[in-house]
Amino acid sequence: MSILCAEGVTAGYTEVDILNEVHLRVEPEEIVSIIGPNGAGKSTLLKAIFGLLKPRKGRILLEEEEITGLSPDRIVRKGLSYVPQVHNVFPSLTVQENLEMGAFIRTDDYSSRMEEIFQLFPLLKERRKQKVGQLSGGQRQMVAMGRALMLDPRVLLLDEPSAGLAPLLVSLIFEKIQEINATGVAVVIVEQNAREALKLSHRGYILAMGRNVMDDEAQALLDNEEIGRLFLGG
Predict the structure, then answer these.
(1) CB within 8 Å of 89: residues ≥ 6 apart
(2) What are phi and psi of 8, to 5 degrees?
(3) 108: buried, middle or exposed (CB in 10 Å: 19+, 13-18, 0-12)?
(4) What percentage of the chain exceeds 70 in pLDDT?
(5) pLDDT digits over 115-173, tens only?
(6) Distance (Å, whole) CA 72 – CA 52
(7) How far apart are CA 174 and CA 153, in angstroms?
(8) Which pLDDT tens digit goes with each residue over 172-227?
(9) pLDDT of 234 higher than 70
(10) DSSP character string of 51-97
(11) In sequence order, which ranges of the chain are alpha helices (DSSP H)?
(12) Residue 97 contacts by C-beta under 8 Å, 6 or more apart in sequence?
């Protein structure tokens, strides 16, 4: 049973369709990358899945339950979290306060979950009292991912997690994504750093002009010379 499916999703802004009958399938505990040129509709697909855009056609299923068009606050309660590319932290709040904001719908004692996040991101524990606006870009990205994990999601959507980061920090963020996945969380990544994203993924989808171009095992996409030339920078 797939944990997340998008079936024939058409969506966009005002009257313009960015996505045209796009499909996506994610199995439990998989990492799936969505790659393609700028303007392909990759981020739009994540927004449609998370309820920030209502599809005009098609449907989205989370563990075989339809979530098409539900509001984001209802979707997170069902086990799906999303980290947007920008505006994904509260700069004026401390690291710990950001994590607490991530647990806003929890009514139980989430202190043990916070400790699990600190084990995953030891640097955040060291900086727990520091304002997030004072952190580096890579550290802020860790805060954003940690905040999304506070609800213990079954699926995590990441939009351009390596954007604007130095190469060393890109490697660190990708390592953390693998560690998150190793805890049993399925991860969907939209990423311009396509080759590196595929290296840590189980499968990949290629979008262009709002349509599916190809999907396959990640290694098969990496080994495909034409895909490499067209979408992976040679």
Answers:
(1) 98, 132, 140, 143, 144, 147
(2) 55, 40
(3) exposed
(4) 100
(5) 999 999 999 999 999 999 999 999 999 999 999 999 999 999 999 999 888 888 899 99
(6) 7
(7) 19
(8) 999 999 999 999 999 999 998 999 999 999 999 999 999 999 999 999 999 999 99
(9) no
(10) TSS--SEEEEEETTEE-TT--HHHHHHTTEEEE-SSS-S-TTSBHHH
(11) 42-49, 72-77, 95-102, 111-120, 122-126, 137-149, 167-182, 194-199, 218-223, 225-231
(12) 90
Q: Which residues contact 121 (CB under 8 A, 6 or more apart)?
A: 142, 145, 146, 176
* Distance separating alpha carbons of residues 159 and 24, to the nearest angstrom: 15
Residue type, 85: Q
Average pLDDT of the residues of the chain? 95
Buried b (16+ CB within 10 A) or exposed e, 134-155: ebeebbbbbbbbbbbbbbebbb
Query: Which residue's entry shows tokens 């213990």?
Result: 152
